[in-house]
Automatic annotation (TrEMBL):
Any one GO BP annotation for this protein: intracellular distribution of mitochondria
UniProt xrefs under InterPro entries: CLU-central, CLU_dom, CLU_prot, GSKIP_dom_sf, TPR-like_helical_dom_sf
The protein's name in its UniProt record: Clu domain-containing protein
Pfam families, A to Z: CLU (PF13236), eIF3_p135 (PF12807), TPR_10 (PF13374)
Listed SUPFAM superfamilies: Hypothetical protein c14orf129, hspc210, TPR-like
Source taxon at top rank: Eukaryota
Stretches for region Disordered: 1-35, 132-193, 773-799, 1174-1339
Lineage of the organism: Eukaryota, Metazoa, Chordata, Craniata, Vertebrata
This protein's GO CC annotations: cytoplasm
Residue ranges of every copy of the Clu domain listed in the record: 329-575
Length: 1339
């Protein structure tokens, strides 16, 4: 499988290995004559080359792909010809007559226009600047660092003019040359090292970053624009060139190209020089007049080509909190002003809303049409977000005047983007915090509405983004066509007129001038959080069950509803979905209990028996269903909304709504938070930074305002020491969110000239306990007196300098108490967090910068220096906008990805692998792989390829995964850390031991800077390093891994036992057999306890312990006999791990393989399921069995695969297929690289409620939820990957049915319906005026 071709996307090639499998009949993807083939490209001044194209490409796509090649760059204004016939740019390749694989296409030079001439000059500038990955730091974007690890040791430049194919290979796809002797790991990443890694190691120097200088200057001439007579003769613009030889030239641009004129700095003479010819490409002309330019341009082109993922522009900006080391040295010559060149290139102001709606209205009849539609939507949304970001910067910098003239609520229009700080209607919601909450909720609701499918796509939303820049938040919805006009959907009713509402009272429906229906002001779409509503009466928030243990610790801190700083506390969609599933399980249990009390389930489910209907009615009443004949759960978003009054006829329904909302609030405290802590306790969830903790909380529907309850639950838990990393992250997040709110207010009083000094002062106050007014602020004070606005003096503009560290932490404590209910635990300074919870100040600084957009200069900061401010004004490199935007889904690719996850969970590795290749291909077609979900898909594809015995393909794919993760998530993102660890496994399999070590060094370096050494994932990295290293350092890393695993997982965990076994192996190699026996005995004890005595892993450990004992006895006997056999003391082969064993252990440690235990229980469960199935089949021959809606018997769907759906352990039949070995089973690989082992004690959980799932209102009902395909099973978490589901009863759950005549607002269907629609945690949609989870489109 090649890595030098970009898979998918117009203008990109596709790897050969994947082109062979694209379009296979897997999960609705069929072959559509889009197979790739190779053509030959020739042209004037261009060395012929092969180009991979697709039949579905247009001719202009081939032109764009050719222009991106180094052989063609920087040529522009080219077209294609075949056999002398010019090709239509808009013609598909499959319709071009005579075009076949191997055909020769010729590039033809086209005349320039004034616009294309300027575009060509801009392209030449980009080539000469040769922007590398580190140049993205200047724009605040995350770079890719992988090339600094994978570069070859041979860096000699080739001779000028020489261009071999090997030089065109991407750097990341070139296997590294192994030096003769590898050095050990740096001192600062050794276990327990006192020295922290220097920040400079985060962004190492690129070995290929040195760019040869081709010119001293290339700029627009002072004689621009051309006078009228010269314009009529074809002159477009004039260019001045200063060559490295010291000569000056003036160049004219005309339709035919570029030529030298006779002008000088003093004399304007545009006539052509007698010695000059017209060149279509500017670089050809420059090569004629300067030999040094020609030589350096050749060296520039011969640099190693970067991977396509690294060369492509990312669709959205990913912030980097570190900038270049020097602001002046990193500022390169731009060769003329880009603004002057591009002023005539910028197109007319776009109508963003029309472009987005037009893209959404594209046809979706075929796969090809859906891919083109998804790609168009992605591109429009990306361009809109970039425009909104630039517009917010321009507005807040003071370069745009408001269009409404209102000083209290100004509105701005920039590049077609409408920007505002929030409507006046949000002012009563809690001031500035209420406005920001309304913006976030509006964005979340628009995300839900934008994912409507089917006929509901006729309801439109505006392109939306929220930009936070320099302490101010601007919302950016695009204008609706030429302006909305009111319709009947607006709520203007006579006083006293009662009408049913199916949305919140704030929502508005508008008919745009374009004839489309829009929904606005949907920030109250989700129901209210009863835990944070003013108490009207005694509201204890008690759930339906007693809280015990961790649950009691969670609920004890929130006895009654409390007030929040703003009035927009709403439940998350994930919580609503989980709560409905919880109530559905209760409903099923209550139906069963009532049936068993009235003669048994078998009797009650018989047709016509009224006892079944009575059981359903009673269960509906017990669980709070709004219907008494079916299970139906809806939430009214207007309940608990201030100022909303309901009709007297709705009193009973509203009281039921309030009761259910209180139970939903209690559900967070009694179920979701304890379940999260339980998963963290068993290391099923291992967030590395506070942002990752927020994502985990959101996936479970827990709002961040519950961080206080989370910390209280941990502090009162008996396992708080094992949860110390979660408590640490929770306190960090509380401090940072409070500090961010104070920082936003802090910046409002700072003038522009003092921004860098003010920001550095605030950071010092945050990190140092007694930092006061800094001397660094004196110079800004002097400047502010000279530059004060309107004679206001310097007193107001320098008020920020009076802030002290003690005052700031006092304000943080007040905000944390008001927001999170924390009265203790934060302390009075950052040192308390360091001493009490083990927080690193560097981690605190990093996350604060990422939240606020502050970018610091790349240098080492001594954050414990109390004598000198560790951060000065010169260290603040920039302040960048932080953007929240809509995430456009890729429906077909996401559906295939979920289907592949389902196959892998069932152990169908081959089928899952094919589905992953199809999904990866579709992701490439839509978003060029630069998408978090595409990153997860490719990572899982690499794992599947590795498990299938294709390590070369796994290596190639994983190289791309690392680059994509660095580009779209961040170079120090937790997912990037885990992807580096996985890459180490794949390259080690290929014999690249040195590269594997460097990847693990990089991963551990990032872990130390992002979180620190006290984290369970450090054990994974140290175990991997212990396996790939040799000697004492190997034992040192393994001992540290054992220490961490014992601390976080416990002594009786399987991972701890694996660490004991690895240490025993290394001790045998070192000759310390006594220590080896000790560790192996510990491992055997755990394996016997967890897996049983008959488990292969237990037997393997016993055999290994026996071999160690025998060898130790032999050595001891030899020593007693006077050393007669001392020459034979080498470690036996049975004790020294082989390469295959090391690879298997690496895969186990990193979660590619998972240890499986309770093997005998799996066999017992399988046998029980077989007996149950045989009994049911025998029963079917005697009586007719009701069928489900999809026409399949209920038993078949429950027993398909002979393993309960909730189980993740593969069946023994799959082990017999050779996919698994005796010590480890290839199970569903966790996307983030975590390795978890779960005890599957539930037996038959998926089938225990089969009979109940047939009964609704006393009869068998067919539901749309049963038509969902099996491919849409697992949940996709986007950036973080998927985690294990614990619900083992979803097969037996009843499906909620919406009732069209209901007057209650938010309707939520459950289980298989909502399970199939969960994409990136967003599942709310609007249907017939009601918000429901969207049904997955099954085709």
């Amino acid at each position: 499988m090649k890595d030098n071709g970009k898979k998918g996307g117009r203008g990109q090639g596709v790897p050969d290995g994947q082109a062979a499998t694209n379009g296979k009949n897997a999960a609705e993807v069929k072959q559509e004559d889009d197979g790739s083939f190779s053509v030959k490209i020739q042209g004037p001044g261009v060395e012929p080359f092969e180009l991979q194209v697709h039949g579905f490409w247009l001719v202009q796509d081939v032109v764009l792909a050719a222009l991106g090649r180094d052989e063609v760059a920087p040529r522009t204004s080219l077209s294609l010809a075949l056999s002398g016939v010019m090709l239509d740019p808009l013609m598909p390749l499959q319709q071009v007559k005579g075009l076949k694989p191997g055909a020769t296409l010729r590039l033809v030079e086209e005349p320039y226009s004034p616009r294309s001439a300027r575009a060509h000059l801009a392209r030449v500038q980009d080539l000469l600047r040769a922007a590398g990955p580190h140049d993205s730091l200047k724009d605040g974007r995350s770079p890719s660092i992988l090339s600094t690890l994978t570069h070859t040791h041979t860096t000699d430049a080739p001779p000028a003019g020489h261009s071999s194919k090997s030089q065109k290979r991407p750097a990341s796809n070139t296997k590294t040359d192994q030096p003769g002797q590898e050095t050990g790991p740096p001192e600062y990443i050794l276990p327990g090292a006192a020295e922290r890694p220097p920040l400079a190691t985060l962004l190492p120097a690129d070995p290929h970053s040195e760019v040869p200088s081709c010119l001293l200057d290339l700029s627009l001439s002072c004689w621009n624009p051309p006078p009228g007579p010269r314009k009529l003769q074809g002159d477009f613009l004039y260019i001045t060139v200063h060559t490295r030889e010291g000569r000056h030239y003036d160049i004219s641009s005309c339709p035919r190209g570029f030529f030298l004129n006779r002008s000088t700095a003093e004399v304007f003479d545009p006539r052509p020089s007698t010695s000059s010819s017209v060149c279509h490409c500017l670089t050809d002309l420059l090569s004629q007049i300067s030999s040094e330019f020609k030589q350096n341009l050749t060296a520039l082109r011969n640099r190693n080509q970067r991977p396509a993922e690294e060369a492509l522009a990312s669709p959205y900006r990913v912030l980097s909190w570190l900038g270049p080391a020097s602001a002046t040295r990193s500022h390169r010559h731009t060769y003329s002003s880009p603004l002057a060149i591009q002023e005539h290139i910028i197109p007319e102001t776009p109508d963003w809303n029309e472009e987005l709606q037009a893209a959404r209205d594209l046809p979706q009849r075929s796969l090809e049409e859906r891919l083109q539609r998804d790609r168009a939507i992605q591109q429009v949304n990306s361009a809109f977000v970039w425009a909104a970001t630039q517009g917010a910067e321009t507005v807040i910098d003071g370069c745009v005047d408001p269009i409404n003239g209102a000083m209290d609520e100004p509105a701005f229009l920039w590049s077609g983007v409408f920007l505002s700080q929030g409507g006046a209607a949000a002012a009563h919601l809690g001031g500035e915090r209420g406005k920001r909450a309304a913006q976030r909720l509006e964005l979340r609701a628009v995300q839900a509405y934008s994912q409507l499918e089917g006929d509901l796509q006729g309801l439109h939303t505006l392109p939306t983004a929220v930009v936070d820049y320099r302490g101010e938040a601007l919302g950016a919805p695009g204008p609706v066509g030429q302006g909305p006009v009111p319709t009947e959907a607006r709520r203007h009713w006579p006083h006293g007129h009662q009408v049913p509402l199916f949305t919140s009272v704030d929502a508005q429906g508008l008919l745009g001038a374009d004839g489309r229906y829009y929904v606005l002001d949907v920030f109250r779409t989700m129901p209210a959080d009863a835990n944070y509503q003013p108490a009207e009466e005694d509201q204890n928030g008690e759930g339906d069950g007693k809280a015990e243990g961790v649950q009691a610790a969670a609920t004890s801190d929130l006895k009654e509803p409390c007030r929040f700083p703003h009035a927009l506390c709403r439940l998350r969609p994930e919580l609503v979905k989980a709560f409905i599933q919880h109530k559905n399980i209760q409903f099923t249990q209550r139906v069963r209990e009532r049936m068993e009390e009235n003669g048994g389930v078998e009797e009650c489910v018989k047709p016509g028996d009224p006892r079944g209907a009575e059981a359903v009615r009673g269960a509906c009443k017990d669980v709070g269903s709004i219907s008494d004949i079916i299970f139906e759960m809806r939430f009214n978003p207007n309940v608990f909304t201030p100022g909303v009054e309901f009709a007297s006829s709705e009193t009973a329904a509203i009281e039921l709504q309030k009761k259910m909302l209180k139970e939903a609030g209690s559900f967070i405290l009694t179920h979701q938070i304890p379940a999260l802590l339980e998963d963290c306790l068993h290391c099923h969830e291992m967030p590395i930074d506070s942002a990752a903790l927020c994502r985990v909380l959101h996936e479970r529907g827990i709002n961040l305002r519950y961080l206080g309850q989370l910390t209280t639950a941990i502090n009162k838990s008996g396992d708080k020491d094992r949860l110390r990393h979660i408590r640490r992250l929770a306190y960090v997040e509380i401090v940072l969110r409070s500090a961010k709110r104070l920082f936003n207010n802090f910046l409002q009083s700072v003038e522009v000239s003092s921004l860098s000094a003010a920001v550095s002062h605030f950071l010092c106050c945050l990190l140092l306990p007694h930092h006061g007014s800094a001397s660094a602020g004196e110079e800004p004070k002097k400047r502010s007196r000279r530059r004060g606005r309107g004679g206001g003096g310097a007193s107001d503009s320098t008020a920020w300098s009076t802030l002290s560290g003690n005052e700031l932490w006092s304000l943080i404590g007040q905000d944390a108490k008001a927001t999170y209910g924390l009265t203790e635990g934060l302390g009075t300074n950052a040192d308390h967090l360091v001493e009490q919870y083990g927080v690193q100040k560097m981690s605190l600084l990093r996350e604060f910068c990422l939240k606020t957009g502050v970018q610091l200069r790349l240098r080492d900061y001594v954050l414990d220096n109390r004598n000198k401010a560790p951060i000065g004004p010169d260290d603040v490199y920039n302040i960048l906008p932080v953007v929240k935007h809509l995430t456009m889904t890729t429906q077909d690719a996401s559906r295939l990805f979920r289907a592949a996850q389902g196959y892998l969970q069932k152990g169908q590795l081959d089928r899952g692998y094919e589905q992953l290749k199809e999904a990866a291909y579709l992701f490439g077609r839509v978003c060029d792989d630069l998408h978090p979900e595409a990153c997860s898909c490719l990572s899982l594809l690499a794992k599947a390829a590795y498990l299938q015995g294709r390590p070369t393909e796994a290596r190639s794919v994983q190289l791309r995964v690392v680059v994509i993760s660095e580009r779209v998530l961040g170079f120090d993102h937790p997912n990037t850390i885990k992807q580096y660890a996985l890459l180490a496994v794949y390259v080690y399999c290929g014999g690249e031991v040195a590269l594997a070590q460097r990847c693990l060094y990089r991963a551990r370096l990032l872990m130390l800077l992002v979180h620190g050494e006290d984290h369970p994932y450090i054990a994974t990295l140290d175990s991997s390093l212990g396996l790939v290293l040799q000697g004492p350092q190997s034992i040192q890393y393994l001992q540290n891994a054992l220490k961490i695993n014992s601390s976080f997982r416990g002594d009786m965990d399987v991972k701890t036992a694996l660490n004991h076994h690895l240490l025993a192996q290394k001790m045998c190699v070192a000759g310390d057999y006594r220590a080896a026996m000790t560790h192996e005995r510990e491992a055997q004890t755990v394996f016997k306890n967890k897996c049983g005595e008959d488990h292969p892993q237990t037997k393997c450990s016993a055999d290994f312990l026996t071999a160690i004992t025998q060898q130790a006895v032999r050595v001891e006997r030899s020593l007693r006999q006077g050393g007669s056999e001392l020459s034979d003391f080498t470690t036996p082969e049975t004790l020294a791990p082989s390469t295959d064993t090391t690879l298997e252990q690496l895969a186990l440690v990193n979660g590619i393989l998972k240890t499986s235990y309770r093997y005998e229980k799996l066999l017992q469960m399988k046998e029980k399921l077989r007996e149950k199935k045989a009994l049911e089949e025998a029963t079917e021959t005697k009586s007719e069995t009701p069928e489900t809606a999809n026409g399949q018997p209920e038993e078949q769907s429950a027993n398909d695969g002979e393993v309960a759906e909730g189980e993740t352990t593969p069946s023994p039949d799959e082990r017999a297929n050779g996919q698994l070995n005796s010590t480890a089973n290839a199970e569903s690989p966790i996307l983030n690289g975590n390795c978890s082992a779960s005890d599957t004690d539930e037996e038959g959980g998926a089938t225990r409620n089969e009979d109940l799932s047939k009964l609704t209102n006393g009869e068998v009902h067919s539901t749309a939820a049963n038509n969902q395909s099996e491919e849409a099973e697992p949940k996709v978490n986007g950036v973080s990957g998927s985690h294990e589901e614990e619900d083992n009863t979803k097969d037996g759950a009843l499906t909620a049915v919406s009732k069209s005549g209901s007057k209650v607002g938010v309707s939520v269907v459950t289980d298989s319906q909502s399970e199939a629609t969960m994409i990136n945690g967003r599942d709310s949609i609007m249907a017939n005026g009601e918000v429901t989870p969207a049904l997955q489109n099954s085709e």
